[in-house]
Amino acid sequence: MFEVFSFGSSGWGDEMLMGALMTVLVSASSLLLGILIGIIFAACKLSNIFILKIIANTYTTIIRGIPELLVIYLLFFGGSGAVMYIAKIFGYDGYIELNAFTIGTIAVGAISGAYSTEVIRGAVNSVHKGQFEAGKTLGLNGYGLYGRVIFPQVARIALPGIGNVWQITLKDTALISVTGLVEIMRQSRIAAGSTHEPFIFYTAAIILYLVITRLSNILFDKAENTYSKGFISKGAR
Amino acid sequence: MRFELMYESFFKIIEGIPLTLQVVSISTVLGLALAIIVALMRISGKKSMSIPAYYFVYLIRGTPLLLQLYFVYYGLGQFSFIRESILWPILKEPYWCGIITLTISTGAYSSEIIRGGILSVSKNFIEASGALGLNKIKTFLLITLPITVRQALPAYGNELILMVKASSLISIITLMEITGIARTIISKTYAPVEIFLVAGSIYLIINFIIVLAVGLAERKLGTVKAN
């Protein structure tokens, strides 16, 4: 029963592990892109400029109200066209095709960005007002205030929330298997199709996802403990 | 922008709304029943009950819904004993596989919401109810349950929206609901932006109605004072 998972050309063991690696890679790059988007849109939401607030609210409402699959279809079918359109403005007229990894990262990054926006916004709001005032009193502004004083605190408070976003992102990457990126989901589909053993390969995929989730939980818990040293005791959890 | 195409595709895509709503409502009702059972098992205090419930929730929350869907639709059909069982007429239909998967998924997620709701009921209420001479079952039905419903409602509203979004996945197992029809039109016309706007707006409207309905129910049920 387990010979289908042997390594090398006869089994699917190495392919499945490569798929798992791909899932982790695409999830990590989507999470990073999402955090970047989250920082920008959280800044928009917290700004006093009306139009920026509207843009940020529209973005989060759309992403949270529309199925992830539709967003992925939009970028899968429309991503290359959009890039070529932008390239045309800059005078490049050739054909550009985005690979599945890039499209997947952009799509899942855009989805996870909406969740990160809310997490980061909440974290900035929960930094004590005194910290801003004290920073200003010390003569800090711009990078000095936000980069050196506020951001480290935001990062600490946002960490558990980002952990949740990571879990959502990890599961959302399964959807980009429909675009042809060979990650866990796609790989197990291919293997199931060619061996006629769907049950065993989907079970293997379930185990791989659970292992990744468990390992990343441990890592996030460790990071939380490290960065909350000297603050609250974590209590019973 | 091809507005004529958007206009035409709108009438094609709305034909998918009944299927989306049907699948969502059937699995929500079945999932709620499952969620209550799982939540009661988790807070029962008996290890033989709470441990399986814990791992069930862990398994479902830790894996992508698409994988669960493939597992039910393709994985189970592999075995001849399932193909020969009386369950096969149900399990061979993508429609029922979609409903089963969504039911299990929402059952796991909502059980956490319900558990949180039950645990949020103040001990004072339970003690007061005992002092008034109500037995355990009456206390649960008359005190704990109504408060739980009120407390869990906002989070459950979110879960309903997630269900509408999740139902789009059944298009992958050949069911032609909103996303399925949208995908077909995109690959025929190659107009992803236009179709996305049409299908996306339909989803936003459905979800907006849910938000309004849950908000109305919240106001109707009033607020529960914490203690």
Describe the structure.
- The complex is a heterodimer of chains A (237) and B (227).
- Helices cover 76% and strands 0% of the residues of chain A.
- Chain A has helices spanning 13-46, 50-65, 68-89, 100-125, 129-137, 143-172, 184-195, 198-227.
- The radius of gyration of chain A is 21 Å and the shape is globular.
- In chain B, α1 packs across α11 (192-221), α7 (94-119) packs across α9 and α10 runs antiparallel to α11 (192-221).
- Chain B has eleven helices and no strands.
- In chain B, 79% of the residues lie in helices and 0% in strands.
- Chain B has one domain (3-221): Orthogonal Bundle (MetI-like fold), CATH 1.10.3720.
- Chain B is mainly alpha-helical and 227 residues long.
- Classes of the chains: A mainly alpha (237), B mainly alpha (227).
Question: Could you give a short description of this structure?
Answer:
The complex is a heterodimer of chains A (237) and B (227). Chain A is mainly α and 237 residues long.
CATH homolog superfamily of chain B: MetI-like
Order of helices and strands of chain B: HHHHHHHHHHH
Number of helices of chain A: 8
Integer-rounded radius of gyration of chain A: 21 Å
The name of the CATH topology of chain B is MetI-like fold
Binned strand content of chain B: under 5%
Assign the CATH architecture of the domain at 22-182 in chain A: Orthogonal Bundle
Query: Under the CATH scheme, which class of chain B?
Result: Mainly Alpha
- Beta-strand percentage range of chain A: under 5%
What's the oligomerization state?
heterodimer
Please count the beta strands of chain B (DSSP E, at least 2 residues each): 0
Radius of gyration of chain B using CA atoms only: 21 Å
Structural class of chain B: mainly alpha
Mean pLDDT of chain A: 89
So how many helices of chain B? 11
Q: How would a crystallographer describe the biggest sheet of chain B?
A: none
Poorly predicted ranges of chain A (pLDDT <50, ≥5 residues)? none
Mean pLDDT of chain B: 92
At the fourth level of CATH, the homologous superfamily of the domain at 22-182 in chain A is MetI-like
